[in-house]
């Protein structure tokens, strides 16, 4: 389904879309170690710093050389769920990506909103797009229920620091309508 969306979307938005897969999702997108969620799941290992270095120093240069993208490319990182958490975390610690989209970002992650409150939010000339399904805060998992208020807190912090932000609340739960949600993100960032 996603693979048939990529080529037409790239043409529609005038962007090169690169999909990176095959990672240990729970660990490379977790910024620091934390207990597993839901209770009983394996703990998060907190491997985002290492993954970000791999992405910045190996993956991006290799991909951009292969497809002929200039060194000073305007990059956007789009992430869903844990990779949506990673998208915002890396945006706060480096300038590799000008824009981000965090779709159903896992802002319930232990300590994340507290971390956002104590760091110096960097100036960003790009845009952050955030999307959350209206049913996500109604999860049966208590920790996940904080995602709505935590998303609001994150967006408020970014706006307070003069970062251009757009937030869309859409019908559905965490897994609903992935392609229409990607369309919203790309439309916000590229049209």
Counting helices, strands and paired strands, the structural category is alpha/beta
* Beta-strand content: 5-15%
**CATH homologous superfamily, by name?**
Alpha/Beta hydrolase fold, catalytic domain
Q: Percent range for helical residues?
A: 40-55%
Q: Quickly count the helices.
A: 7
How would you characterize the overall build of this protein?
- The protein has 191 residues and is of the alpha/beta class.
- The chain has one domain (2-190): Rossmann fold (3-Layer(aba) Sandwich), CATH 3.40.50.1820.
- Helices cover 43% and strands 13% of the residues.
- The chain contains seven helices and four strands; from the N terminus they run H-H-H-E-H-E-H-E-H-E-H.
- A four-stranded parallel sheet has the order 1-2-3-4, with helices on both faces.
- The longest helix has 20 residues, at 48-67.
- It starts with a helix and ends with a helix.
Structure characteristics:
alpha/beta, 191 residues, 7 helices, Rossmann fold, globular
In short, what is this structure?
With 191 residues, the chain is of the alpha/beta class. The protein has helices at residues 2-13, 25-28, 48-67, 82-93, 112-118, 147-160, 178-190; strands spanning 76-80, 99-103, 127-133, 164-170.
